Amino acid sequence: MNKVFANADEAIFDIKDDCILLLGGFGLCGIPENSIAALVKKGVKNLTCISNNAGVDGFGIGLMLQQHQVKKMISSYVGENAEFERQLLSGELEVELIPQGTLATRCLAAGYGMPAIYTPAGVGTEVADKKEIRSFNGKEYLLEYAFDADYALVKAWKGDTMGNLIFKETARNFNPLMAMAGKITIAEVEQLVAPGELAPDQIHVPGIYVHRIFKGINYEKRIEQLTVRKNK
Known about the structure:
The chain has helices at residues 8-11, 33-42, 61-66, 82-90, 100-112, 175-181; strands at 20-23, 47-50, 70-75, 94-97, 116-119, 133-136, 139-145, 151-160, 165-166, 184-193, 212-215. Helix 4 (82-90) links the parallel strand 3 (70-75) and strand 4 (94-97). Helix content is 21%, strand content 25%. Strands 1, 2, 3, 4, 8, 9, 10 and 11 form an 8-stranded mixed sheet that branches. Strands 5-7-6 form a 3-stranded antiparallel sheet, covered by helices on one side. It is built from 6 helices and 11 strands. By secondary structure, the protein is of the alpha/beta class.
């Protein structure tokens, strides 16, 4: 099975309106920049996007929000995006905010083939609204369902043509879990190598979870909040 695609446009060829997408990364680290740009170019609409955050204005998922391609955002943090805030307050965008650990564990559950998990996060808050609560050993837990996403879009540092992936530092947050959780996982990598060139002990996601892979280009790797020391 040949998993290698020439570019992002070819790799996302069958993503259509109304799809549910998992988008990896943490802040602006390790986000699938090329795949997002291809989705903007393709113009698909009414997407449900599951991501730790919603990008920033003019970058990441923020590009899709500007084009009104997202109908629902499921995230744990959205504080850097003014267009997101505008669409939320105007009622244009449906938003589900969930604890970060719950987001990660719902991805993990999907990857492991588990339909749901119980978590103490959110008990006694608005997060628990209309959700089943059970008590285990005297402590209350919420029932949370595994994500059921059509595609996972992830970005790795290195990958081989069989789909084995290595992530670098902060980019390892959420990307591996989301790679495991998608029905179809599309990985973009900075370096694409032949099988056998990656040390087995360094692989974070085995190729069995990855359906398509391509070598990305022109990564910006922006910084959300740049803080520098003043010259003395």
